[in-house]
Amino acid sequence: MVLRHVVLGFLLLCCGSFSVWADVDEPKGSDVSNSSSTNVLVAAPTRVPPKPAPAKVQGVVAGSNGKVLVGAEVSLTRHGWPEELYKGTTQKDGRFALQTRDRGLFWLNIKKKGWANNKVLLWLKPGATVSVEASLKPGPKATRAKTKPKVASKPASRPTTLAAVSHPSSRPAGFAQSQPRLVKTPWKIQPAWAGQLNPVVQLMKSGRKHWRQALLQHKASGKKTPFVYSYKPTNDLIDKQVKAATIPIVKDAWLMLKSSLHPSGRPVEYQAFESWRMGFIKKLVQSTPPQSVLWSLSSMLSQNTIGMIGPEAKVYKRLVMLTHPSPSIRYAFRSRKLMGMGFRWRAIRRSMLKLKNTAKTQTGKVKEQSLAKVKKLEEKLQRAKRETRDTYDEMATLVAKYPSKRLKRGLKRSKWHTHVVFPVGSTITPFKVALWESSKPTFSHNDLKGHHTLIMFWATWCAPCVAKMPLLHRMYKHYKKTKSFQILAVSYDSNEGVLRRYRNKEWKMPWFNHIAKKGSSSNMGEMFETVILPTLFLVGPDGKVMARGMDLRSHTFRSVMTRLLGPLPAKP
């Protein structure tokens, strides 16, 4: 007992010989220096906030035959981002489990060789548990195969046609067979709208596909009447879904999609539709915050919708760029802004150069007025360039913080908007490409010397490119003899068979041809930073650019070529 008291006294003596200081807030009116209290301040232990519990996505994957699928690939991707963030595979019983501490809209992607891919839109929040029961349909290859894909013998407990999302404690009696849906989960925020947005997103993505199919059917029919696409079935479907929608964000999503359609009918109906469209969009933007998930469903549709509200669209878009929780939406809005600003300062530059050339032949006060206008355009051009560069830097910072292969490629292509690639008078840098179906194996920068060369980036699916073919063949036939003229056509067609059929049936294209299968990501695409087709460069015998860009792409193409290489003979 005596020993215990001795030890305690020794510890108290040791503790009293130290002073532990901490930064504390002094009460108002207190004087620490004159205080009679002890000068030993003990720091309160800093409380480290616990990490949020991860959101769990679990479930079972089965085939349409009712048997679970083993080895199916399951992954989570952010809505609008292609990279798979979290991956897993189904076990022997067909079950899977994924975790993430992120929150927001996610796609649950399910893949299995021989089966049609599937994906479900989910709203995830840390600490939540979501269960998914999905059923995959046989793929087109699996139906023709002699052997069926291997599946486990154990049947799934409750297979569905697509996917049904629920929590195990609140599983409904029957799952939806027509479309995926999200049943209420025991969260503080009940995101019952996430599953109901699936049909909206799917219709947004498939709309252009249906239009394309209708266009191909019209061409195949051989009708001489103009192609008209009726949006009435889609409009009727949207009206039906709007009446059935009970959640405001789902109703707004359907109406936003409807506002992007074009009515078919009399001018009176079109005027009524325009009046409704403008009223709805202004009301939608006023009642929807910039951080809303509604804008992340389709970046293109969201920007078109916001852009129709008038002058305040610029401020609202800026708020979306700064405050929206989705990095892909912030990037998409900045990318669209950068594109518009790039075309704007290029237009200012063309006007300035045109006015400069005109001022050279003027005299007196007229010349002074023209030079004053040139100076104002130069200042305007510098401001526009500065704003464009700042927007590009914001995009680069965003991509560095949220790395993505797709966005990195897009950022590399977007650099074209900040400067002019190979301006008139500059020399083409060294390059070397393999030629397609030519007696000459390669074409390099050395082959430009001593020839007038037209470098053309094009594709068979590009209507303006195809429209230039008759004139290009006439130019090639005439200038080849008089001006040692040659053409290097860089095709963005990924299928050689399509290009070969085009040469056999449409136009022979007897010049040098190169196929850039990766498109703008190819060596030539990155070197010339092509984002628009067609893109043309006319290079002189000294290897310097004589004309480029819009001068060779618009209606001035023939006049510019005639001015630089001489007149063309009349049509035979």
Topology readout:
Blueprint: H1 2-16, E1 55-63, E2 73-78, E3 86-89, E4 95-100, E5 104-111, E6 118-124, E7 129-136, H2 140-144, E8 163-166, H3 193-196, H4 198-221, H5 232-244, H6 248-259, H7 267-287, H8 299-307, H9 313-323, H10 327-359, H11 364-401, H12 405-414, E9 432-434, E10 442-444, E11 452-458, H13 463-467, H14 469-482, E12 485-491, H15 496-505, E13 512-515, H16 523-528, E14 535-539, E15 545-548, H17 550-553, H18 557-565
Parallel strand pairs: 1-7, 11-12, 12-13
Antiparallel strand pairs: 1-4, 2-3, 2-5, 5-6, 7-8, 9-10, 11-14, 14-15
Question: Explain this structure to me?
Answer:
By secondary structure, the protein is an alpha+beta fold. The protein has 18 helices and 15 strands. It has helices spanning 2-16, 140-144, 193-196, 198-221, 232-244, 248-259, 267-287, 299-307, 313-323, 327-359, 364-401, 405-414, 463-467, 469-482, 496-505, 523-528, 550-553, 557-565, and strands at residues 55-63, 73-78, 86-89, 95-100, 104-111, 118-124, 129-136, 163-166, 432-434, 442-444, 452-458, 485-491, 512-515, 535-539, 545-548. It has a 5-stranded mixed β-sheet with strand order 13-12-11-14-15. The longest helix has 38 residues, at 364-401. Mean pLDDT is 75; it is low at 1-45 and 142-190.
Radius of gyration: 33 Å
Mean pLDDT: 75
Total of DSSP H or I helical runs spanning 4+ residues:
18
List the strand order in the largest sheet.
13-12-11-14-15
Q: In whole angstroms, how far apart are the ends?
A: 124 Å
Low-pLDDT parts are 1-45, 142-190
Number of strands: 15
| Helix amount | 40-55%
Indicate the proportion of strand residues.
Answer: 5-15%
Shape: globular
Biggest pleated sheet: 5 strands, mixed
Which structural class should the secondary elements be placed in? alpha+beta
